[in-house]
Design brief:
5 strands
Length: 139
C-alpha cells in the first residue's frame, strides 16, 4: 500500500527519442509524500518525437498516480515545452500534442491539486534513465 493519499506525491517524468523522430521511450517515477519511491515505470513507444515521448511519460505516470489513489501531486519535468503547455503558458499548436494535452488535462482534473514544475535535467536523472531503459529493453 502506498503512503497517505492525502499527502503531496511527486511524479518525475521524462521522454527520450533517439533521432527526432526516432526510437522513443518514456519513463516515470512516483514518490509518496515521505519521499519513498513507490513506482518506476517505463514504456517503449516505437518511433516518436521527443515531445510525444514527454507527454506519454506524463500520461503514464499520472494514470498510475490516479490508479494508486494519489490526490495531491507535484510533477517535475525537464521539458520546458511540456511544463509550459500544461501550465497554459504556451499554446499547443501541434495536432498530435494537442490530443495528448487534452488527455492530460482531463486526467489532471481528477486530482484535488497539482503543480507542474520545470527542473534542470540533472535533477531528473531517474526518469531519464527509465525512458532510455525502455528503448534499450525493446531491442
Amino acid at each position: 500500500m502506498a503512503g497517505d493519499p492525502q499527502g503531496e506525491w511527486l511524479l518525475m517524468v521524462d521522454g527520450a527519442s533517439r533521432g527526432n523522430p526516432g526510437e522513443a521511450g518514456s519513463g516515470a517515477v512516483i514518490f509518496d509524500e515521505t519521499g519513498k519511491t513507490i513506482r518506476e515505470l517505463t514504456r517503449y513507444l516505437g518511433r516518436a518525437t521527443n515531445n510525444v515521448a514527454e507527454y506519454e511519460a506524463f500520461l503514464m505516470g499520472l494514470e498510475e498516480v490516479l490508479r494508486l489513489g494519489g490526490k495531491r501531486l507535484r510533477v517535475e519535468s525537464d521539458s520546458e515545452l511540456l511544463v509550459r503547455q500544461l501550465n497554459g503558458v504556451y499554446r499547443v499548436k501541434d495536432e498530435k500534442l494537442s490530443r495528448l494535452h487534452q488527455e492530460a488535462q482531463a486526467l489532471l482534473r481528477q486530482l484535488d491539486s497539482y503543480r507542474i514544475i520545470h527542473v534542470r535535467r540533472e535533477k531528473n536523472r531517474v526518469a531519464d534513465r527509465l525512458a532510455n531503459q525502455a528503448i534499450d529493453e525493446a531491442h
